[in-house]
Amino acid sequence: MLTKRIIPCLDVKDGRVVKGVNFAGLREVASPVELAEYYSQSGADELVFYDITASAEGRQIFTDILKETASKVFIPMTVGGGINGVMDFERVLSCGADKVSVNSGAIRNPSIIGEAAKLYGDQCVVLSVDAKRVGGKYTVFAKGGRENTGIDAIEWIKRCVSDGAGEVVLNSIDTDGVKNGFDLEMLSAVSDAVNVPIIASGGAGSISDFIELFKALPKVDAGLAASVFHFGEVKISELKDEMIRNGIPARKE
Fold first, then answer.
1. Cα dihedral 226→230→233→239 (10° resolution)
2. Which of 51, 88, 130, 176 is flagged as catalytic?
3. Could you confirm whether 130 is annotated as catalytic?
4. In CATH, what number does 5-245 get?
């Protein structure tokens, strides 16, 4: 059985890592390079970097930070924010990223998924979806959760996977930052709809939340979180020990 991945997420704004609750009230945390090094040494399986205001501000992603991090960190890195075309894929991959996450850019230009998959392979294309319950259905939001697109999240994910997205990060805005557990209902619906790796995001508050996630939804491949790792509420080594005690496969150094 494949090991379940534990992935810290670094939301970067103005060159610093920040994390808030429900995308609001952002707090500065630390240097992204230092934090990435710390997580790499602490047993993280991968890292996700999001330049959280690149799309909203219409600018390119932080290539200087990415290059420095790639020179010091040797676990897979997924990078997103302001990815609007295949040239952005090229730029980010050339700076050291292993995978590229696309969210708002794909909503504006859905063909980016297929074009990037043909050039770089499905494994490089990560679809990131911020979803929230609206009127009884899961709805896609863009620009860091600020803009309701009206798009049905399940249908959107199915379309993008069909076009070549090799992995899906599903972030539930309803549970993001609240620390009451992952959105198992939403994750279950997505896991049943597609057959690519699903990364759960939004809601982790304790080690038990990860255990519940992997036990309840064996199809989910990874758990992603930010603040519980940034503020030391969950230590990755302790989380993995508990996963193994619960029969959940995890990579240990």
1. 70
2. 130
3. yes
4. 3.20.20.70
